[in-house]
Design brief:
heterodimer; A: mainly alpha; Four Helix Bundle (Hemerythrin (Met), subunit A); rod-shaped; B: alpha+beta; CRO Repressor; 8 helices; 8 strands
Chain lengths: 130, 239
């Protein structure tokens, strides 16, 4: 009798706890983007590379700026693998398009347009997951 | 990009599906036939939000999820308010309206609800009432269905009217479902497999796996339906 009562109590508690736990996990997955963005930014030096690229573009150091673009592309790809479940895919795609255009402008030694694209890419990165 | 989108879609569909499942369990067991117009629209909105949570990848999942939870939260709140406060319930769900009273059509009440005589006749027919003279009362319920009380002379005779004695009916208990014995139900009836086997053999059944459904009524009569019905000719209802 006591065991049956205990089982019923466990069933009652699990009937509430399990859904709350599942919803909690879902919520954690969905907010993980904004939580993980900063540590990933530090680990993959994304903001730092944006700043380096800005300096290189202003000083017209084209090979260094091109290297920054390659590095940034690889860093962002690694970051997006983790962030993609909780952030806007469009923002991610926009950043990659900006990088493509920056590469083109660097090839053409067009610092002004490359800088404009860089600022837009940085804006997308800032908005990502926020 | 395409492959990563598929991963994201699957994850977001999982979140949407199970969130919807959990939240609709919270909303209770209201049947579709009992839904008011507002409940119906509410259901569509909640479903649509869950759908965009899965497919709208231009925005993150969180705002959709929060929207979904908020809508269901409000629906739940309305249910609680309706149960606790009768006046609020009248405001939220509306009230039933009498459309036929003592055999007379209530035109003013019908006009207020934009309910036509054709609607009334149609719904009466769906209740097997083809002659409006037979109706004492008709009530248009909150879900749009009509409830009809026929005049006493048109109501079917019951065993009580005929002074016939009747026994207790109760509910049947299913003992075998799809070839599997429901041990819990058998135990609840204080019966065992030996009894079941002997009863089945009386019905010409050799093994439990031959039975689709077996249920016991409160009079102790066992109903058995086998997978093989051995019918010579099946009734065909197709055109």
């Amino acid at each position: 009798m006591g065991q049956a009562k205990g089982n019923a109590k466990f069933k009652n508690v699990s009937a509430y706890l399990l859904p709350i736990l599942i919803l909690g996990i879902f919520l954690a997955v969905m907010v993980s983007g904004s939580v993980l963005k900063e540590p990933l930014d530090t680990r993959h030096q994304i903001s730092k590379t944006f700043s380096e690229m800005e300096t290189n573009l202003k000083e017209k150091n084209w090979p260094e700026a091109a290297a920054n673009t390659q590095f940034l592309r690889s860093s962002l790809n690694n970051t997006f693998k983790i962030l993609r479940y909780s952030v806007e895919l469009d923002e991610m795609a926009d950043i990659m398009s900006n990088l493509d255009r920056i590469e083109g402008f660097i090839q053409a030694n067009d610092g002004e347009n490359a800088l404009g694209e860089l600022y837009e890419a940085r804006g997308h990165w800032r908005e990502l997951g926020s | 990009m395409l492959i990563s989108e598929v991963h994201v879609e699957i994850l977001r569909a999982t979140i949407g599906f199970f969130t919807l499942l959990i939240l609709t369990r919270l909303l209770g067991k209201q049947q579709v036939s009992e839904l008011t117009v507002f409940d119906y629209i509410l259901g569509i909105t909640i479903g649509s939000t869950a759908s965009s949570l899965t497919t709208d990848l231009t925005s993150s999942a969180l705002p959709h999820w929060v929207g979904l939870v908020t809508w269901v939260g409000f629906a739940f709140l309305m249910q609680v308010v309706s149960v606790k406060w009768r006046k609020a319930s009248r405001l939220v769900d509306g009230v039933p309206s009498v459309v036929i009273m003592n055999g007379m059509i209530m035109e003013d009440a019908m006009r207020k609800m934009r309910y036509t005589v054709s609607d009334l006749l149609e719904q009466l027919r769906s209740k097997d009432v083809f002659d409006i003279k037979q109706v004492e009362f008709a009530v248009l319920e909150r879900n749009g269905q009509i409830s009809v009380l026929k005049k006493s002379q048109y109501q079917p005779a019951t065993p009580k009217d005929l002074n016939l004695s009747t026994g207790y009916e109760g509910l049947q208990t299913v003992i075998i479902y799809d070839g599997t014995v429901l041990e819990q139900n058998l135990k609840h009836l204080n019966l065992d497999r030996i009894w079941l086997q002997s009863e089945l053999s009386k019905h010409g059944v050799n093994g439990i796996s031959e039975v689709l459904l077996a249920s016991l009524d409160t009079q102790g009569v066992l109903y058995v339906d086998k997978y093989k019905d051995h019918l010579v000719k099946l009734t065909d209802l197709s055109d």
